[in-house]
Design a protein that fits this description.
Blueprint: H1 11-22, E1 26-28, E2 39-43, E3 46-52, H2 62-70, E4 75-78, H3 81-95
Parallel strand pairs: 3-4
Antiparallel strand pairs: 1-2, 2-3
């Protein structure tokens, strides 16, 4: 049985930044499990998972590490709103190629 995943303290504000920059192309995937990441986001033809962590020191789980190894170009870690803005710019640029 899977219990509800706990969200990091900055999840709401980071998700809001992604929604402001990517609009409806943001899905909360924090409950999906298997290390997929907290958000599924896309722009153009590019899509990826975003793992939100409250700070750089917080470790990823074994499932998150395994998922990232299988999908290295589609899994990103995000620790702050500033980092979310940077990632949104990268996602938009990649999706428009």
């Amino acid at each position: 049985m899977r219990f509800a995943a706990r969200k990091d303290s900055n999840h709401t504000e980071v998700e809001k930044a992604f929604r402001e920059m990517l609009g409806d192309h943001v899905t909360d995937s924090s409950g999906w499990g298997n290390g997929a990441g907290d958000l599924f986001v896309s722009s153009g033809h590019f899509a990826c998972f975003i793992e939100i962590k409250a700070d750089e020191k917080k470790k990823t789980t074994a499932a998150q590490d395994k998922f990232r190894e299988r999908h290295p170009e589609q899994w990103f870690r995000c620790n702050s709103v500033d980092h979310a803005i940077y990632l949104c710019k990268h996602i938009r640029a990649t999706g428009s190629k």
